[in-house]
Specification:
By secondary structure, this protein is of the alpha+beta class. It has two helices and two strands. The longest helix is centred in the C-terminal third of the chain and has 12 residues, at about 50-60. It starts with 10 loop residues before the first helix and ends in a 6-residue tail after the last helix.
């Protein structure tokens, strides 16, 4: 099960990065966060291939923590 977070006000950005950057597009930033709240993968779209993203999601769902 994968959850999608839509963060137009920057609340998640503030929590994980400490600051919101107005003008950035939250829909193109990709953060995979484990159940402990740790960012285990960070990238952006289209800077990552669909296969790479799928592999990272599958790894996280199996309990692995790459990157």
């Amino acid at each position: 099960f994968v959850k999608f977070l839509y963060d137009p006000s920057g609340e998640a950005t503030i929590k994980y990065a400490g600051k919101y950057y107005p003008g950035t597009c939250p829909l193109t930033n990709i953060l995979l966060i484990n159940k402990s709240g740790k960012i285990v993968f960070a990238s952006h779209f289209p800077g990552i291939s669909e296969k790479e993203l799928t592999d990272q999601i599958n790894q996280l769902m199996k309990g692995g923590e790459e990157r």
